[in-house]
Amino acid sequence: MNTIEAHLRAIMVLELACRILDIDLTARLKSSKLLLLFEVERIVDLCKQRLERILPLLEVKEVALRGRNVKIMKLYQKLPTVPKRDAITSYRDRVAYIRDYVNERALRALYSLDRDNERYLRLETARVHTFEMFDARVPARPKPKEQSTSLSESQINDLWRITDPLANENPFRVEFVRYRNSLLMQWLILLGLRRGELLGIRLEDIDWQRAVVRVLRRQDSKVDKRRRPAKAKTIEGEIPLSRDLMAATYEYIVSPNLRKSQTQDDMPFLFLARGGGALTDSALQHIFRKIRESCPALPKKLSSQMCRHTCNYILSLGFEREGVLDTDEAQRRRVLMRWSAISTMPDHYNKRRIKEKAHQSSLKAQNEQYAKRHTSKHDGIK
Questions:
Q1: Radius of gyration of the chain (CA)
Q2: If we measure between CA atoms, which residue out of 186, 185, 164 comes closest to residue 175?
């Protein structure tokens, strides 16, 4: 889920909880008060629920207040639903975001008060106490299991084989779908696009003369009619396209039995669903699921994120062959993956290759020591 959207949803949960519990946060701040223990507990409990399950609680409470907050209720009900997987994983973040939001509002209220004022001292005490109550209820992040985050060379070959449009084992039957999915996987593995970036690519973003694709942020585009519009997560940028990838993309676009067979010329998006609409996030997840089921050799967690890690592993091997220095490698990776100039993400996405090189260094050191040991034995015999 987009980070900004996650923050906003957390604040919505807080607002709904305050309505259910009859809490006027603004009034409490003015009186140098914040939240009680049972209120924090109730808010944290509501963080476990999806928004569409919280709304009925508010409806029951306000049933006697007919006509009141009707517009607000309709606004909440128009929100796009969050997949169950995202709702579960966002519980920790919701509590943390609400903790920080309440703390920030208290700090702003404190700025308007004199430090020697009794109201300042009361509010500061309430702020610290409320922060600690929320903080104690923020679940710890589970430690990730030691597992490969990218595909091995044999798994990459399996993926190319299973998505080959002409392969008998290709799990997709419609010609358009076969070619679209083949191209889609090439874009993910070779360019390292996030799924939101991939689904948001438009024909106009491809510069055929310069052989690059522009990854742009279009947060409030009216052209995207999907229930969950595609969103680019970080900064904008350009990615070079190889001659082969350009040729495969061009064939997909201009062939009368491929993309043209599904839509009219006014559809801007590169990757389409059958029938001509823009490919959705849920449809992309279905593609990955079907590929996984058709090829047991592929990881059970095959996803666009794993493809992004695989792209970075391929980049690492390429940088080594070129003899690129570590500092220069990190800068190049930031440009290609569209991270900020001070981002630490290059180290995260390079973990697999770092681990491999560490193992290689360890084996080399072990072999050197055994060679010295063997030499010293022979010298002793002499």
A1: 27
A2: 164
